[in-house]
Amino acid sequence: MLEHFDCAAILRRALSGGGEFADIYFEEGSSTAIVCEDSKIERVLAGADRGVGIRVISDLRTAYAFSNEISESSLLALAETVSRAVKGKKFDRVIDLTRKIVGTGFPILLPPEDIPLKQKIATVSAADLAARGLDGKIRQVTAMYRDGTAKAQIVNSCGEFIETARTGTVFTVQAIAAEGSLVQTGYEAIGGVRGFEIFQTMGPEELALAAARRSLMMLGARKAPGGTMAVVLSSEAGGTMVHEAIGHGLEADLAQAGMSVYAGKAGTRVASPLVTVIDDATIANARGSFSFDDEGTPAQRTVLVENGILKGYMYDRLSAMKDGCLSTGNGRRESYQTKPIARMTNTLIAPGTTPPGEIIQGVREGLFVKKMGGGQVNTVNGDFVFEVSEGYLIANGEIAEPVRGATLTGNGPDVLNKITKVGTDLGFGIGTCGKEGQGVPVSDAQPTLLISEITVGGTA
Asked: Alpha-carbon distance 386 to 413, whole Å?
């Protein structure tokens, strides 16, 4: 699309009021969302959208405007609007857009657009039926299918012309079991930069049964004991810990604004020597992966913490300009209607050297967390609270009875320094990460971890 316009002239117009950098972001895509609730198809949403945004960075401030009208005249008018919002040194470099780079993306075996809507609806209905048929205590089931395909083009004043495409599919099931006044929830999700082939590894019925069984098991569990104790986080727990306890705090814009407990700590110890934290957008088909970020920077693997030492932060173009370094390919946006900001992609704690079974066997008493729930973190001081959606007591090195209602409370740097064993395995969780009103697809991963002590909320 952008190749049909004089993008160099549009960029020069955007920079006519001053500025060090400008770019044009064009996006067009389609999506489908289907929700089944209470055995009824509640929503079927299918649509397409396209639009363009123009940004100017001047004196390390951003001016941004967008429109869904795509024409040479409308783009020039949009550029004029942005130019009036900035004042600065005149941009006098040549903008040469002769070279175009196309991202290779990841292979999609069964593109969502090739799957009939009827078949997509059948997946959510099958999940609902499977979960409800397991036990009469299952009172509510919500199954959701969502897919999306988008093509983006990015042109900037450095002379870069990038074209990239992404496809993503997500399927989630939430089952609620009730007995008397007691209510428990089970949740499962699959997804990634994939098409309908996500169901080749786990079908909708299998996913639904896993969610339903978890809600039923927690229904029969006793209340978790509270206090300070050793906790083993399973690799199946998902990456809530790495995402919340350290991930957000290593986004460069938060660190620069003094809103991160990790601000100014590059080169210092922030975690146990056993802990290495990586953000990697190159993992094939992972939910947070891409070939180029939303600013046209190639995807990369960034080591954030190595053997406990903070090596650096996740940068988008603006935060990199502020620190006089290069972007790490973490400039992401929800759509053409929003400006890019520094965001995580696929963030993980790297596997260690201890077999998972050996980690559990070494704990006399404690809590085994198989699945984490939601969480909250204060990035300024690192304090967090996480819910445990599936947990078990550990007794004499063995996983014992299930418990419900547990929470983990602690401080990010403190808990990361109390990781005393790191497993050889690695498990992924998926999600949509929110920041500044924008949601972007991410995944998080961790091996089995032993935290020597952490406060567990439960029954005294």
From this structure: 15
